[in-house]
Amino acid sequence: MSLLKKGRAETPGRRVSRVKNLCNLRNLRFFQGAQVRKRALWLGTAVLFLLLRADGARADSPYTTWALGPGGWLFMTQDAYTPFAEVDLPISGAEEMFITAAGVMYVADTGNGRIVKLDAFFNVAATYGEEVLQRPTGLFVDGEGVMYVADAGHDAIFILEPDGRVRTQFGRPSEPLFGRNRQFLPRKITVDARQNLYIVSEGSVDGLVQMNTNGNFIGYFGANSATMSLKMILQRLFLTAEQLSQFIKNEAASPSNVTIDHQALVFTITAGTDGRQSIRRFTISGKNIFPDTIGSTAFRDIHVSDDGLVLAVAADGVIFEYDLNGALLFAFGAQDSGDQRLGTLRNATAVARHGEYIYVLDKDKNAIVVYQTTAFAQRVHEGVRLYVEGFYQEAKPYFEGVLNDNGSFIMAYQAIADAYYKERKYANALEYYRYAEDRAGYSEAFWELRNLILQQRLAQAILGLFAFSLVSQTVRRLERRRRWFDPLRQWLRRLGDIKVIDDLRFMFRFIKQPADSFYYIKSGLRSSGLRGSLGFALLLYAWVVVVRVLSLYVTAFPFSPYANPANIRVENEVVYVVLLIFLWNAANYLVSTISDGEGRVRDVVIGTAYSLFPYALFALPIALLTNVLTLNEIFLYTFALNLMWAWMGIMLFIMVQEIHNYSFAETVRNVLLTLFTMALFVLTGYILSVLFTQLFDFIAAVAQELRLRG
Q1: Helix, strand, or coil here: 233?
Q2: Where does residue 286 rank: exposed (0-12), middle (13-18), buried (19+ CB within 10 A)?
Q3: Coil, strand or helix: which one is 566?
Q4: Which residues contact 613 (CB under 8 A, 6 or more apart)?
Q5: Predicted confidence band at 230 (pLDDT cuts at 50, 70, 90)?
Q6: 537 inside domain
Q7: Per mean pLDDT, which range of 246-250, 425-429, 631-635 is the poorest?
Q8: Does one domain contain both 528 and 600?
Q9: What local confidence, expressed as pLDDT, does residue 1 receive?
Q10: Does residue 605 sit in the same domain as residue 550?
């Protein structure tokens, strides 16, 4: 008889109420057919007996549940699943578990070399393959009860009849396409509707091994791609072939587990790779369509339910749940640290969902840990199911309820925004797309809203522009006769005598005559007031800093690097700009002093300031322009920015050439050395900060030791 581990005790009334709810949920597994309904009644009665036999119920969740929130960060949320039971089984080191659509559970009892079928009481109803299997590690059961087993002991595939008889078995493919020196080490297996087998072969860098039921090799499928780090690129550039041969070959990682969804699309997980890319979903052509998302580098198993919920369990006991589009819904779970709390895992090897329950196979505990879906998660799941199927408006009430429970659940904002967009409520859609941090959706909604406004106001705008043009031409002609603006012109000429205004006029001279203007800065000539001043240069630097900060705030959401203006760290932006200006001026002057440069510190500082005038003049208008653009017109924004940066770079180049009296080749050399020196300054500052941090920690540790001994 199996044992149900208890948690915190509960009253008989609460226990009976929970049992009634469980029976109702279990009945949902078998809804069609009179014979199947009888089975549901029997199963519910069995679970009722099992729970009433137990002396207690579950304990409070020993873990925190996380959900994806703003900024791509994980935020704590209500429990999505609560620990329900932990069932000890007469198994040893089980590696795989499979639950059929009818709710029948099979376990690959790896240590005992058999397949175990469990009844509704979690007792052993039947065992299969004891005489032929050695170490079954992969298991798939089709709708007819046929078992497909990957046996690591024999390095072979076994196909067992529903009664346990061996239908067929086969090992390494003999086809030349498989590879002459390739090993066949089957560890996991799944089967599609056409009875094509997808096998995880340990160490296979070409992906899954695809075979038919006769053991014929079809091909490789779903291979991972090898990644090249900067270190590897540098090694290949500078090391010889003999030196490179001493390093480990850079090959793609082998998939570690596989499953298939109701659309016949194959999922794989790859342990040891980047957690954001460890889950993949392949089309029939082998293209991955699962986006990069928060995950784990130590995934053990993956399961996809018929309603489109993806589960993956990691070695550290954390369970991740996604929708079919790759959006993370929940992450929860904890590793058993020895206190044996209900719901913790020691060495999870398999995960599966059936109905409102998650079942996790624990290899070290020789047990199945059961989690029950909460009402909050049920609301999320129902909304997700409708949303993934394209019923946005029907899903909106569910997600509005989710936001009432958790205002940081970012997927709810996405779903509600899509619903408003479909309802043509574009203003509301803009608001929720911004909360969802969906720049593409925001841009599409803004395009529709802008189109509506243009249709309503375009005629009035054209008439207004025509009237303004007519009035301006009339005023211009009258002014030529009557000279109305002469007093204003005289006042502006007097303003030119003010030092700041004079320097401002000098700045605009750089647009037409940059080389001559830098010459005036260097020579210090006062002809026509063309000289510039150190005070105005500092004012220009301050102008650049202010423009940088303001441009971040006024840039439209689709073009902004910040999803929320509250995330802008003004102090950081100010420090970055000031530090960059200081590094350029210091590095350029130091490099110039040792390379026959003629410019003084004052000349470099003033010349650099005036070289930044394209940014000071145009960065803010470009940022404001984004508020009437969509991502469809992003080329206008990028072209304007690139033009501004190119103009500023040319101005700096001319400044170095004229201030230091260099030739073209000498100027190129000076600019490159300046950039290199700036990089050295940054590296030196980083090293010093690390050293001083360690010194501070050492002094603090010594002081603490003296206090403890004193």
Answers
A1: helix
A2: middle
A3: helix
A4: 507, 510, 540, 651
A5: low
A6: yes
A7: 246-250
A8: yes
A9: 34
A10: yes
Instruction: Return the half-sphere exposure (C-beta side, CA atoms, 13 A cut-off) of residue 162.
Output: 6
pLDDT score for 253: 84
- Evaluate whether 268 touches 222 at the Cβ level (below 8 Å): yes
Using CA atoms, how far apart are residues 327 and 402, in angstroms rounded to an integer?
Answer: 16
Q: Which residue has the higher pLDDT, 318 or 17?
A: 318
Residues 649 and 690 in one domain: yes
Write the burial class of residue 644 (CB in 10 Å: 0-12 exposed, 13-18 middle, 19+ buried).
middle
Average pLDDT for residues 600-628, to the nearest whole number? 91
Q: Do 511 and 475 share a structural domain?
A: no
The pLDDT, as a whole number, for residue 130 is: 92
Q: Which of 57-61, 411-415, 610-614 has the lowest mean pLDDT?
A: 57-61
Give the chain's mean pLDDT. Answer: 85
Structural domain boundaries enclosing 453: 379-484
Whole-structure pTM value: 0.78
**Chain centroid to CA 662:** 48
Last residue of a domain, one of 484, 518, 553: 484
Residue 267: CA count within 13 A, CB half-sphere? 27
Confidence of residue 468 (pLDDT cuts 50, 70, 90): confident
Q: How confident is the model at residue 6 (pLDDT cuts 50, 70, 90)?
A: very low
Decide: 65 and 374 in contact? Cβ < 8 Å.
no
Q: Give the C-alpha separation, 252 to 657, whole Å.
A: 50
Asked whether 505 and 529 are in contact (CB, 8 A), the reply is yes
Q: How many CB atoms lie within 10 A of CB 408?
A: 17
Residues 465 and 508 grouped into a single domain? no
Least confident of 24-28, 89-93, 455-459, 627-631: 24-28
pLDDT of amino acid 498: 67
Q: Are strands 105-109 and 114-118 parallel, antiparallel or unpaired?
A: antiparallel
- pLDDT given at position 48: 35
Instruction: Give the tokens for residue 323.
Output: 């929708």
* Rg (alpha carbons) of the chain, rounded to whole number: 35
CB 153 within 8 A of CB 111: no
Structural domain total, the chain: 3
Query: CA 366, CA 98: separation in Å to the nearest integer?
Result: 15
Q: Are residues 603 and 552 in the same domain?
A: yes
Strands (E), 270-400: 279-282, 299-304, 309-314, 319-323, 328-332, 348-354, 357-362, 367-373
Does the structure show a pLDDT above 50 at 462?
yes
Nearest to 21 by CA among 537, 503, 510, 375: 375
Asked if 474 and 506 sit in the same domain, the reply is no
Same domain, 614 and 643: yes
User: Which tokens hold the place of 635?
Assistant: 């080329």
Residue 583's closest CA among 442, 707, 677? 677
Q: Say if residues 115 and 133 touch (Cβ distance below 8 Å).
A: yes
Residues 6+ apart with CB under 8 A from 347: 315, 362, 363, 364, 365
d(CA 369, CA 703): 49
Residue type, 351: V
